[in-house]
C-alpha cells in the first residue's frame, strides 16, 4: 500500500490473551506448497490494498484450507484492511523472509504469529500486541523429557528463524539444532526418530499433537511472548492506523470472537498462562 486513508484517532487499548499449534505432508506436497507460496508472495502493491506477509504453516494462526489461507491472523488482517477501507491481499512466504518483505516495501505488514523481540525491533516497528504466547516442547509419548533441563545435549528440531530456533540456540547447552523450513517437517522428523524433541509455539504444538499419534506436549512452556504486527519504520501513519483498528476491535469484541473461533472459550489459555508464570521471560517466533 503506497498511501493510506486518514482515520479518526481512537484511544489506544492493548489486548492480551494467552495462546499456545500443527500439520503434516509429503515431499511432493512440500514442493507444491513452496510453489504456491512463491506465487502468493508475487503480489503488486497498490493504494487500494493492504498486503500482509505471512507463512501459512502455523495453524491456527495462518494455514491453508484448500486454496485459501485462513486462521486467526488472516481474519485479523482482513478486518484491519476493511476498517482502513482497503482490500487485504496475502503474500505467503518463508517465515524468515517476512521482515525483509516489510522493510523493502514488498509487503505493507507482517502478521504471522510473530513475537516482538529486540532484534526485530531494530528493523521494524510493532503494533500493540494482540495475544500472548509461549514456546512448547513436543516429544515422543514414551519420552522421559518433561522440561527444559531434559533437553541439554539432545537433538532438537525447530522452524528456521522462529523464536523456538532463537531460544534453543541461545539458551539450551550442548544441543544439536536441526532447522526446518516448516514446522510440520520438524514434527515429521520427530515421528521418524531423527530428533529427540521439537520446540515450537504452543498453539501449533497442540495442533501437531492432535493430528499425529505417538507424540505429546510437555506441560511447561519455555517462554512468555507477545505477538504483534510488523510495520516498516518508515510508515508511522500505518502503525497508528493499525493500533487504532486493534483498539477498536478489542473494544467491540471482534478480537475476542476471532480468538474464540479458533482457540475455544479460553479455558486452556488460562491454564497455559498459569503454567507460564514460572517461565523465564525471553525473546521469542
Task: Provide a concise account of the structure shown.
By secondary structure, the chain is of the alpha/beta class.
Major β-sheet, in short? 5 strands, mixed
**Counting H and I runs of at least 4 residues, what is the number of helices?**
10
CATH topology of the largest domain: D-Maltodextrin-Binding Protein, domain 2
Order of helices and strands: HEEEEHEHEHEEEEHEHEHEEEHHH
Q: Provide the β-strand percentage band.
A: 15-25%
Number of domains: 2
Distance separating the two termini = 25 Å
How much helical structure, as a percent, in the residues? 25-40%
Anisotropy-based shape = globular
CATH architecture of the largest domain: 3-Layer(aba) Sandwich
Could you name the CATH class of the largest domain? Alpha Beta
What is the SS-derived class? alpha/beta
> What strand order characterises the main sheet?
5-1-6-15-7
The beta-strand count equals 15
The low-confidence runs, each spanning 5 or more residues with pLDDT under 50, are: 1-41, 266-284
Radius of gyration: 18 Å
What is the CATH superfamily label of the largest domain?
Periplasmic binding protein-like II
Mean pLDDT: 82
Amino acid at each position: 500500500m503506497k498511501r493510506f486513508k486518514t482515520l479518526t484517532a481512537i484511544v489506544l487499548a492493548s489486548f492480551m490473551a494467552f495462546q499456545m499449534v500443527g500439520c503434516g505432508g509429503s515431499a511432493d506436497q512440500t514442493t507444491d506448497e513452496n510453489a504456491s507460496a512463491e506465487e502468493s508472495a508475487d503480489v503488486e502493491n497498490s493504494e487500494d490494498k493492504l498486503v500482509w506477509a505471512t507463512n501459512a504453516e502455523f495453524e491456527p494462526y495462518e494455514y491453508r484450507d484448500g486454496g485459501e489461507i485462513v486462521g486467526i491472523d488472516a481474519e485479523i488482517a482482513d478486518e484491519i484492511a476493511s476498517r482502513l477501507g482497503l482490500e487485504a491481499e496475502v503474500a505467503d512466504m518463508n517465515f524468515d523472509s517476512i521482515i525483509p518483505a516489510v522493510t523493502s516495501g514488498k509487503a505493507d505488514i507482517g502478521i504471522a504469529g510473530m513475537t516482538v523481540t529486540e532484534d526485530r525491533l531494530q528493523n521494524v516497528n510493532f503494533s500493540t500486541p494482540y495475544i500472548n504466547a509461549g514456546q512448547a516442547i513436543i516429544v515422543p509419548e514414551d519420552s522421559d523429557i518433561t522440561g527444559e533441563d531434559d533437553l541439554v545435549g539432545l537433538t532438537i528440531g525447530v522452524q528456521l528463524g522462529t523464536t523456538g530456533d532463537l531460544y534453543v540456540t541461545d539458551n539450551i547447552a550442548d544441543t544439536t539444532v536441526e532447522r526446518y523450513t516448516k514446522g510440520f517437517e520438524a514434527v515429521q522428523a520427530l515421528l521418524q526418530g531423527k530428533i529427540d524433541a521439537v520446540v515450537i509455539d504452543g498453539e501449533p504444538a497442540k495442533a501437531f499433537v492432535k493430528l499425529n499419534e505417538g507424540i505429546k506436549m510437555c506441560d511447561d512452556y519455555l517462554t512468555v511472548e507477545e505477538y504483534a504486527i510488523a510495520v516498516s519504520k518508515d510508515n508511522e501513519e500505518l502503525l497508528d492506523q493499525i493500533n487504532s483498528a486493534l483498539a477498536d476491535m478489542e473494544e467491540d469484541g471482534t478480537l475476542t470472537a476471532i480468538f474464540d473461533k479458533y482457540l475455544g472459550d479460553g479455558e486452556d489459555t488460562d491454564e497455559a498462562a498459569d503454567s507460564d508464570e514460572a517461565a523465564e521471560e525471553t525473546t521469542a517466533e
